[in-house]
Amino acid sequence: MNPWREVLAHIEAGDNAGLVEFVGSLGDVGRRAVAVQLPGHLAERLAEGWEARWETRDRAAGYRIAGAACLSGAGQVAAWLNRRELRDAAGRTDAERILRLLRQRPEEWRRDLAVRLVERLRLPRGRAAWRWTGGLPGWHLAAGLVLQTGVEPPANDAFTAGWVLRMAAEREVPRADDPLLDLMVARLFQATGAAAGLAWSQSWTSGHDIVTALVKLAGDGRLKRQDLLDGCLTRFLSGAAADELAPFVAMWRQLTAAVEEIPVLEFTRLLPSAPSLPAQLALDELRRADQAGLLDDELFGEAVRALAYRPERKHVTAALRWIADAVPGPGDSRARAGNALVALATVFSHDAPAVRDRAVRLALKLGAHHTPTPTPTPTSTSTSTSTSTSTSTPTSTATPTPSPTTGPGPERAADPARAPGRTREADAARAAGIAPADCLTQGWDAVREAAAALPDDLRSRVATVFGEVEALTEEPVPAPVPVARPLPALLPPIETPGELADELSRLPWPDDPALFERVVAALVTFTHRDRDAVVEALRPWWRSEWRQPFDTHALVYGVSGFDRDARSLLRRCALAVVSPGDSRELTAGLDAYALTHPPHDPPLHHLLQRRLREVIALFEREGTVPVLLATPTSPTGHVDPETLLARLELLDGAEPLPADLDQALLRLPRLTTPALAVRADGIGTEAGRRLAGWLRAGGLPDPDVTCVIKTTRTFSYGETRSPQVRVSPVTAVPEGLAGVLAVGGHTSYPQDAVWWPWAMPSHREVVAAHLLAPLIAYGGEGGLDEALADLVHGDGPLGVATATALTTVMGYRRPERRAAATHALVTLAARDEPDGAGFGRLLGRVVGEAVLKGLVKLNRVMTVLNEATESGAGTWPVLASALEVLLPAPGAKPTAALGDLLATAVRSAVLSGARGDVPGLAALAARKGASRTGEEARRLHHHLTRA
Questions:
Q1: Which end of the chain is more exposed for a tag (fewer CB within 10 A), N or C?
Q2: From start to end of 308-408, where are the E strands?
Q3: DSSP states of 721-732 as a string?
Q4: Per-residue buried b or exposed e for 705-718, using 16+ beta carbons within 10 Å of the residue's own CB
Q5: 563 and 641: one domain?
Q6: What span, in angstroms and rounded, lies between the C-alpha atoms of 446 and 432?
Q7: What is the pLDDT of residue 107?
Q8: Per the record, which residues fall in region Disordered (predicted)?
Q9: 322 falls in which pLDDT band (50, 70, 90)?
């Protein structure tokens, strides 16, 4: 057997040990023979399909051994070993085999390969696969060559991260005798991806992780402790994400920096924008430095202002605690008091009343102890002097302070002339002659300005210390104009059989009713005009889309859910044109299967299925009709009555397809003219007379809809919710349409729901009743949320089913799913519905009851109502009605997130100019305390009852 055949046999057998022994014994000629065949063979295997690709991955270790031993250039070997199909096998065992083989290669060649392998290392994307493969794929081999040859590895974050990931995966820690230790630690603090391994190792038993081991090595003198401190600081200043910083925060804390080692300037600059964990570290260390007298007034002011600006309540509260501890009384620095007042003024606008009130109390305490010195008015005799010296000695310039939004500062520079904690900005201010009293004046001014927006009682308290404060004059806020999200315009009809074939071959997923209706309409029309031309155009599609030879058994018994969705039925329509015999055979098989496996599709979906199946039957018997009646003429799914009459006239006395006529009637608008009924009577067919009667009656009378959500608990499924919906017709329903009013259980195919608003575009409440069960069951998946957003573009009354459906979507966990409810509310407002306020009150009541029953969470509902309010949806009727249900009884505890609901209600009431009263609001507003709920209740009550 020649060398290549022998190598291939070992690879196919998975005999890696035998392969190593064999290729190690090959001479130059044998290795060249293998190298010629190997790349082409692998390319052929990969081209055979996904099964061959999986088999290749299973044999990847053998391919790696063969390539490493037989390919000639270092570049060729590096490229081969880094092929995506072979990379997953690059673990420790693989590295040991290949390193043993490569010892035959020249030293310079191996050094070159080591550099190339290090440069080609890449961190895995997505899930951390390194955890299960023993480290970063390819790292063991690259590191082994580096250690064997002594070459310095090029800078590559993946190599450094791989050093950490390997230890994390194997539950090891750095050793003092690790030859890579010094180089890797020097690069550790800049390497992206290293934090993942550090964090994973911290999940082990406490005290036996990589970070703790590095700190111990520094304590033993093996590593320089200052290098670790400086490295951590560099990482903090890098702007990395929170998960990339957490292990280094732990390292800094374990190093227990002396107070003189705290980099106060850099830590101050971290506070505005650093993630919460390093920001907390910076705060703790700065407070230690402040207690030791190493933080000057300017840096103190910058730090507390930065904390006051942060969105996290805990950091704002920390700023207040620090101010209370660091500026206790009249003996303190006036400049520090001024900086503290500026920070406190920022907190006056905080959302939490308790935090805001505490800031006011602190400001009053500081203001009582620290009063700015009045600036003397210069006399006429000193005017020339002060003017001549104004450029060098300003008398009333405020102390320059860095912006609280300043990002991380520059690297520290040693300056023995500057005391710890002192900044160049502070020294420059002192050199310019800015007095601490000026900083205090700035603080007083900031407090008075911020107090203007405080509630009356707090503003009055501030005025007793800081002087008169004028209330902020509220400018009239123009209400935003709601803009409905437009539906996509209908595309023009398909013009040729060739275009029809193209559209069939690229039907979108999920279903797009407008495009599907366009395709089936063209198929019917073109087949009537020239069936042979359609068959010829569709033949390539038929060969590629349907198994040849045709296999009825596979379609009937092997495809789950086949023949029930619009896509399958539309494809069957085209099959019935191209190959009627195959289609008849398939229909017979499906009908027989349905006798023993009856479908359980929602009743409203049956209408679509009936309509497409009658087209299939028409083509199977090789019949045609000139046009479909129910093809929509509007993006809402409506059919223009004039167009419907014209289509009926095209039939030239023939009767239309029954389900097509049923659907066309349901798609007519609610308002028509009497003349159209007369014209329909004149057609002289049964369909024409039925249309005339429909037009005179004004369409299908609106049924009565009732809806209740029932919650049940079972041992197997826990808590389940299902709607109890009843749609009761007020008059007799025409034959063929009774099913559309029969609301069934939820569907197993939620993607079907995109069709339902198109089935009854003039009866939104009925469609909402059908949507309710799948909306509850599937959480908006499969286009259900979009079906609700499309529903409101139609016509017809809105009632409890629509309100319950909207409430259900408002309560979805994922914000992108809840967005459909926002779109629906804004669309309803933009359309200026006749009973918009009445439906709003109904919706608010349904929302309130759903919250009390635990069916939805108020904080999720609030995001929808808030966004709708800001979009001009006019949500006051909804909010007022919800408050009537949710406001607590006297002495009862308020519902969670009620403060958010009240805040949005204030905004909505201001925009709408609402006045009056909400039952229970005055009692809640009169409660004592500084909770947000009470504060917002007082704001709303004040607005509603003021003259």
A1: C
A2: none
A3: EEEEEEEE-SSP
A4: bebebeeeeeeeee
A5: yes
A6: 23
A7: 93
A8: 368-430
A9: very high
What whole-number distance in Å separates Cα of residue 153 and Cα of residue 158? 11
The SS3 of residue 712 is: strand
Q: What is the mean pLDDT of residues 911-926?
A: 91
Q: How far apart are the first and last CA of the chain?
A: 104
Distance CA 456, CA 462 (A): 10
At 255, list the tokens: 């190093």
Question: Within this chain, do residues 624 and 760 fall inside the same structural domain, yes or no?
Answer: no
In this structure, the answer to whether residues 611 and 737 fall within a common structural domain is no
Range of the domain at 756: 721-945
Interatomic CA distance for residues 752 and 787, integer angstroms: 10
Task: Tell me how long the chain is.
Answer: 947
Structural domain tally of the chain?
Answer: 3
What residues contact 408, with CB distance under 8 A and at least 6 apart? 236, 237, 238, 239, 266, 269, 270, 273, 274
* Same domain membership, residue 758 and residue 666: no
Token pair recorded at residue 727: 């749609």
**Do 727 and 600 share a domain, yes or no?**
no
Each residue's pLDDT tens digit, 100-156: 999 989 999 999 999 999 999 988 765 444 444 567 889 999 999 999 999 999 999
Per the structure block, which two tokens stand in for 562? 């086949």
Q: Which of 681, 697, 713 is the last residue of a domain?
A: 697
| Token pair belonging to 739 | 């099913």
Residue 608 falls inside a structural domain: yes
Nearest CA among 348, 346, 374, 377 for reference residue 361: 348
If asked whether residues 459 and 560 sit together in one domain, one would say no
Residue that wins the pLDDT comparison between 378 and 51: 51
77, 69 Cβ separation under 8 angstroms: no
Distance CA 327, CA 340 (A): 8
Residue pair 699/762 in contact (Cβ under 8 Å)? The answer is yes
Helix, strand or coil, per DSSP, at residue 534? helix
Looking at 697, 712, 733, the residue that finishes a domain is 697
Give me the pLDDT at residue 714, please: 60
Model pLDDT for residues 693-713, shown as the tens digit of each residue: 999 988 888 889 988 887 766
Q: What are the residue ranges of helices labelled H in 453-563?
A: 456-466, 497-505, 513-529, 531-545, 552-558
User: Residue 834's pLDDT is what?
Assistant: 75
Whether residue 538 is found in the same domain as residue 668:
yes
8 Å CB contact between 524 and 627: yes
In a domain, residue 645? The reply is yes
Tokens, residue 219: 């304590």
Which residues partner with 707 through β-bridges? Answer: 725
| 734 in any annotated domain | yes
By CB atoms closer than 10 A (0-12, 13-18, 19+), residue 686 is: exposed
Closest CA to 518 of 637, 602, 418: 637
Residues 6+ apart with CB under 8 A from 276: 242, 312, 314, 315
Task: Give the residues across from 722 on adjacent strands.
Answer: 710
Mean pLDDT confidence for 203-215:
83
Q: Is residue 330 part of a domain?
A: yes
Contacts 24+ apart (CB under 8 A), 171-178: 171/201, 171/204, 173/201, 173/208, 173/209, 173/210, 173/212, 173/213, 174/210, 174/213, 174/214, 174/217, 176/217, 176/220, 176/222
- List, in sequence order, every beta strand (DSSP E) within 75-199: none
* Average pLDDT of the chain, as a whole number: 85
- Do residues 693 and 735 share a domain? no
Pairing of strands 718-728, 704-714: antiparallel
Instruction: Provide mean pLDDT across the span 39-45.
Output: 88
Residue ranges in 811-875 assigned as alpha helix (H): 815-831, 836-852, 858-870
Rg (CA), the chain: 38
Count CA within 13 A, CB hemisphere, residue 642. 2
**Of the ranges 1-10, 561-570, 638-647, the best mean pLDDT one:** 638-647
670's enclosing H/E stretch is none
